[in-house]
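Students often ask what a 'structure token' actually looks like in practice. Rather than answer in the abstract, let us consider VOC domain-containing protein, a protein of 123 residues. Its sequence is given first.
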Amino acid sequence: MPVSLHHIVIDAHDLPSLARFWAQALGWRILSEREREVVIGTDVNAPVGICFMPVSDAKAGKNRLHFDLTSGAAERDAEIERLLALGARRVDVGQTGAESWTVLADPEGNEFCVVRPKGTLIG
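Now compare that with the structural description of the same chain:
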């Protein structure tokens, strides 16, 4: 039997704050909150969640892994503004300006993208 993805783990300085940002961004909820671990997900039976673990060192450089978020095409700009209001910020990772995605960073500087709807990416 192959393994399955359980959690995506994000190192964080302020676990509760970063977990709240991502829970609000994704419409998820806090499933477990301990001193050294906060888990978010859609519900306790969800196949995958995000786990926030403490780290003491500062983030250095661009992420080697990032999330791509999507919404309906008509809502994309409003979703970007909502994410900015939650504490995200725009970042430049070398974009040309012609991309079909927008690069943002969460409150601790982890980059993520808001991309066009999945249906327009396939084919």
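One point worth highlighting: The chain has a mean pLDDT of 92. Ask yourself how you might have guessed this from the sequence alone, and why that guess would often be unreliable.
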